[in-house]
UniProtKB/TrEMBL annotation:
It catalyses: D-ribose 5-phosphate + ATP = 5-phospho-alpha-D-ribose 1-diphosphate + AMP + H(+). Residues 6-120 form the Ribose-phosphate pyrophosphokinase N-terminal domain. The keyword Transferase applies. The keyword Translocase does not apply. InterPro entries: PRib_PP_synth_CS (IPR000842), Pribosyltran_N (IPR029099), PRTase-like (IPR029057), PRTase_dom (IPR000836), Rib-P_diPkinase (IPR005946). This is ribose-phosphate diphosphokinase. GO terms for biological process: 5-phosphoribose 1-diphosphate biosynthetic process; purine nucleotide biosynthetic process; ribonucleoside monophosphate biosynthetic process. It is an enzyme of class 2 (transferase). Keywords: ATP-binding, Kinase, Magnesium, Metal-binding, Nucleotide biosynthesis, Nucleotide-binding, Transferase. It comes from Apibacter muscae. SMART domains: Pribosyltran_N (SM01400). One of its GO terms (molecular function) is kinase activity. GO terms for cellular component: cytoplasm; ribose phosphate diphosphokinase complex. CDD domains: PRTases_typeI.
Length: 311
C-alpha cells in the first residue's frame, strides 16, 4: 500500500501552493487558523496525517510570520504523527545571512536551518538558494532546485540573436557561465563595490556587449538598484537590448518604480514570492509550480531527481 500524501500551505503562499498541488495531482489539505486579538495565531491541520508524507508549502520572506507559520505547521504535523515532513520553501528567507562578514552579527541562514530541523522537518525542498553552501547547514536531505529549468526554455523562445549573458556582480559569475553554456552565449560581468547593503558605490562592465542582446541573470531582485544600474551601463556600452532574469522577486523599497523607469526591456521572475504590484508591464512571471509538483512526485515515489538539476 502506498503511503498517503497531504499537502498544506502557509497563508501567504496559498496561490502558489494551489498551483503546485494541482501540478502534483491532488488538492490542498484543509487548514484553519485561530487568530488571537494580540496577533498570535494557531494553525490546525483539519485532516488526519498519521503515518503520512506531509508537504508544507511556504516561502519564508518577511515578515517573520511566514517563517513562524511554517515552523508551527511542521510542529503540528510532527505531533499528529506524520511519518515524513517536507518543508517546501520556494524562497528561503535570511539566505543572505550565510556567514559572519563582520563581528557580532548572526548567521541567520544557519539559525533558520536549525529551527526547521528542531520543529520536525525531515526534508527541505527549495529553489535557487542565495548561497549553495546553505545546504550544508542541514543534517537532513535538501533538494536544491534551479529556476534555470524554467528560464532557459523561455530564453530560447525569444530567439534572440547575438545573445550575451551578464552577471550583475562577481558572485553570480558561475551562474552566468552555466546559463551561457546551455544557451551558446557569451558572458560579461558587472563588477560592483558597496559599503552597505542596497547601496552601490561603484560599478564597471567587464566584457564587450556592443550590438548584443543581453540578459542579466541573478537569484533575486530586492531594491532593483543593481539591475537597473547594470542595465544603464550595458546600454551605454552599445547593447541592442537588455533584460533581467531573477528567481525571487523580493522587490522592496522603490523597486517597482525603478524597473518601470529603467532601460530594461523585460524582467522575468518566478512566483516564489507573490508580487505586491501587478501593474508594472515590464515584469513577466513564470510559474515554478510545475517544477515543484514534479519533484514532489519523484521524491514521494523514491525516484531520482538528478535530471532536474540543469544548473
Amino acid at each position: 500500500m502506498s503511503q498517503p500524501v497531504h499537502i498544506f500551505s502557509t497563508r501567504e503562499n496559498v496561490t502558489l501552493a494551489e498551483k503546485i498541488s494541482q501540478s502534483y495531482g491532488m488538492p490542498l489539505g484543509k487548514m484553519s487558523f485561530f487568530d488571537f486579538s494580540d496577533g498570535e495565531y494557531q494553525p490546525c491541520l483539519e485532516e488526519s496525517v498519521r503515518g503520512s508524507r506531509v508537504f508544507i508549502i511556504g516561502s519564508t520572506f518577511p515578515p517573520a510570520d511566514n517563517l513562524m507559520e511554517m515552523l508551527l505547521m511542521i510542529d503540528a504535523a510532527k505531533r499528529a504523527s506524520a511519518d515524513k515532513i517536507t518543508a517546501v520553501i520556494p524562497y528561503f528567507g535570511l539566505a543572505r545571512q550565510d556567514r559572519k562578514d563582520k563581528p557580532r552579527v548572526p548567521i541567520g541562514a544557519k539559525l533558520v536551518a536549525n529551527l526547521l530541523s528542531a520543529a520536525g522537518a525531515t526534508r527541505i525542498m527549495t529553489m535557487d538558494l542565495h548561497a549553495d553552501q546553505i545546504q550544508g547547514f542541514f543534517e537532513i536531505p535538501v533538494d536544491h532546485l534551479f529556476a534555470s529549468n524554467i528560464f532557459v526554455n523561455y530564453v530560447r523562445s525569444l530567439n534572440l540573436k547575438n545573445l550575451t549573458i551578464a552577471s550583475p556582480d562577481m558572485g553570480g559569475a558561475k551562474r552566468a557561465r552555466t546559463y551561457a553554456s546551455h544557451l551558446n552565449a557569451d558572458v560579461v560581468i558587472c563588477y560592483k563595490e558597496r559599503k552597505k547593503a542596497n547601496n552601490i558605490d561603484y560599478m564597471i562592465l567587464i566584457g564587450d556587449v556592443k550590438d548584443r542582446n543581453v540578459i542579466l541573470i541573478d537569484d533575486m531582485i530586492d531594491t532593483a538598484g543593481t539591475l537597473t544600474k547594470a542595465a544603464d551601463i550595458i546600454m551605454e556600452s552599445g547593447a541592442l537590448s537588455v533584460r533581467a532574469m531573477a528567481t525571487h522577486p523580493i522587490l522592496s523599497g522603490g523597486a517597482y518604480e525603478r524597473i518601470n523607469n529603467s532601460r530594461l526591456e523585460e524582467v522575468i521572475v518566478t512566483d516564489s514570492i507573490p508580487l505586491k504590484n501587478n501593474l508594472v508591464d515590464k515584469i513577466k512571471v513564470l510559474s515554478c509550480a510545475p517544477l515543484f509538483g514534479e519533484i514532489m512526485n519523484l521524491v514521494h515515489n523514491r525516484e531520482s531527481i538528478s535530471k532536474k538539476f540543469l544548473i
